[in-house]
Amino acid sequence: MFAAAKLGADEAVAKRTHHTASGDEGSDGETERAPRTLRDKPAKSDRTTQPSTGKKRKGEKQAAEVPEDTKEPDEIQQRTAQAAKKYQRGGPSSTTTKVRSKRAQASLDHAKRRREEAAEEAARSEMLLTQDAGFLEAEGLERTYKFTQAQLAENLDLASAGKIFDLKLADFGPYALRYSDNGRHLLLGGRRGHLASIDWRSGRLGCELHVRETVRDVTWLHNESLFAAAQKKYVYIYDHTGAEVHCLQKHVEPTALGFLPFHFLLASTGMTGQVVFQDVTEGAVVGSHRPGLGPSHVLKVNPYNAVVHVGHGNGTVSLWAPKQGKPLARMLCHRGPVQAMAIDRSGTYMATSGLDGRVKVWDIRNFKPLHDYKTKQPAQALDISQRGLLAAGWGPHVSVWKDALSTRVDKPYMTQLLPGVSTSALQFVPYDDVLGVGHSQGLSSLVIPGAGEPNFDAYVANPYQTTKQRQESEVKSLLDKLAPDTIALDPTFIARLDPRSQAQKLRESAVAERERYAQDKEEGKYLDSSVRNKTKGRNSTAKRYLRKTQANVMDLKKLQALERVEREKQQREKAGDLPDEHKGALSMFYKDQR
């Protein structure tokens, strides 16, 4: 049986060899079958070896295999490499910090590879973004700031035209408003005690209540399930049903609120001028500072480094962190009290308005003014959109400037007149071309083309978030909660390594201490004890200050005093007299003997 099987196998091999030979003659030297798939190479069993004759056929060129590293990148790879540059973090990818420890060096190299891979993946994902940001364009002699919301509604689709509406709430205004991070929910707070949360896209009311006291500001917490209200005496926290959850009595007479989402900190300022930071997960107050500049009504959070900006009545803006007892920086912005403030999402630009009627744009990186705009009335509200549009509300007018942060523009992009009202709050809706305006008669929703980011990241903010996704994101954000110590002007200081050794640090500190001591000595901060006058009545504060300032000044009076002391000393030594302090307690019975 085994012999028969072997014979059958030999016949099959012979038939295959005969078929291959006949195929070579008829198919012009094809030696491989078609691959099993388009991406798989032919298997070794599918290949047949052909003895090489050493001669090339006429017109045949020998193809050389090009290594993949030396191949030129195609168009897609070039576009990906170009787009990946803007996603790089921590400096250029070619530079790497060198340290002595092999384990630390391996960790740095691994982190560098992860950054490069993340930048490349982010660049590749750009190809899947299908939405583009578009702005309003005028033809001929038309101007975009002449277009009204009624004209836009006639030329928009039904879904976009439905975003232009007014809420008439004249009994409880003026209103403060705040949109959630995903732009889906709206929070309203009337000055006369009206609170309401709305899913404004679907028109569904979340909760509505009346607290029967003054409400100065409102803000969402980590999501739309909790919100805080700055009421007459304290800050109160409510849930999505309108039930009171907490009363924060450390925030006395608050006027402005801000929330730090990555640190779960609620910041406030008020009539006392105190800046308070409170952890909403533990309830502990992690920072309380007194600037000493009177009541404050303006507070904004920088989304880049989580530093809190507070505007004061003397025209200054101070920057605060919870664990720093003094302000990180102070900026003199206006000649009058600061009325409103806005910070862009990159943390680079800050816009402020004051009672002097100016709207100024500042570069926070070097704390220098870039340019300013003039309004007929002081702007009471400011906001910056995700695409860099600057909106200002002054009186019944709302003005929006395009490209107003990086350059100085002469004319606004869009304007809107709200007759018979006075604006009190402004905010652009995230991921949408809508501007919400709170005023004395309620709320107005305006369509501003090109204001919102057209493509959203579902891991950051998802407008179509389900209940399950909201719960998972809440747990994840609590696990990733940052400590208050990580708040600083430069957030990239975290995870930096100091390559200096301990001995080098000690040497450098000793040298710095000696230099500081020498400088202080030259400035007269240290006095020589040999010339210090200890006479009664001459050791007052003013006399000590004068001696410190004149420690190195040798005038004629001081030289004569030094000479007199030296001459008396020489006379005593020559006469053999002993000072009284050397004679002891029986000095009255002591007689000098030569």
Estimated helix fraction? 10-25%
Largest sheet: 4 strands, antiparallel
Approximate strand percentage = 25-35%
Q: How does the helix and strand content classify structurally?
A: alpha+beta
Query: What value does the average pLDDT take?
Result: 81
The coarse silhouette is: globular
- Uncertain regions spanning at least 5 consecutive residues: 1-9, 12-41, 43-56, 58-63
Describe the strand arrangement of the main beta sheet, using strand numbers: 1-28-27-26
Number of helices in the DSSP assignment: 9
Distance between the termini: 144 Å
Number of strands: 28
Using the CA coordinates, give the radius of gyration: 39 Å
Domain BING4 C-terminal: 412-491
WD repeats: 331-372
Organism: Coemansia interrupta
Biased composition (Basic and acidic residues): 30-47, 60-77, 114-124, 517-526, 566-584
Structural summary, described in words:
By secondary structure, the chain is an alpha+beta fold. It has nine helices and 28 strands. The protein has helices at 2-26, 75-84, 102-125, 149-155, 158-161, 467-479, 502-522, 541-549, 556-575; strands at residues 165-168, 175-179, 185-190, 194-199, 204-210, 215-220, 226-231, 235-239, 244-248, 254-260, 265-270, 275-279, 285-289, 298-301, 308-311, 316-320, 329-332, 338-343, 349-354, 358-363, 368-374, 381-384, 390-394, 397-401, 414-417, 423-428, 434-439, 442-447. A hairpin with a 5-residue loop joins β2 (175-179) and β3. The longest helix is centred in the first third of the chain and has 25 residues, at 2-26. The radius of gyration is 39 Å and the shape is globular.
